[in-house]
Amino acid sequence: MRIYGVTGWKNAGKTGLMERLVTEITGRGFTVSTVKHAHHTFDVDHPGKDSHRHRVAGASEVILSSRNRVAHMTELRGDAEPQLSDLLLRLAPVDLVLIEGYKRDNHPKVEAHRAETGNDLIAPGDPTIRAVASDVPLELDRPVFDLNDTKGIADFVLSEVGL
Fold this sequence. Notes:
The chain has 163 residues and is an alpha/beta fold. It has one domain (3-42, 81-161): 3-Layer(aba) Sandwich (Rossmann fold). It is built from four helices and eight strands, in the order βαβαββαββββα. Helix 1 crosses helix 4 (150-161). The longest helix has 14 residues, at 14-27. The N and C termini lie close together (12 Å).
């Protein structure tokens, strides 16, 4: 499976770039899935709903299914967070999986960067970052794209993965 990441510090523009890349790449006829890492507690379920009641009752996994979508929730209940490689095995085959976050994993990535955040670039110390998408011009030893150049970034990513 071909994978490519979008990484960067908080408020760097990762999610917006991911959204635009998914739209651009699927618009070209490719199938895309995504994996997003969250550093905080999150929930896709709501108190009072049947699936939430199943989880609270102690179910390890709950699959919620309708004619529009399927959600598969797994409660870790103290177990370790799954590795990215294990999560990828759960996905149905697609042309490309775009991964948001997972800075420390070893897959190729584009770093999203916004100068206003005041954060240093990750790229200079990380060879897995193959390009940077920034809102300001930068001098680096790898390609630098305008953060809003979705077409150019998509061309780069698709070339990198051989699509």
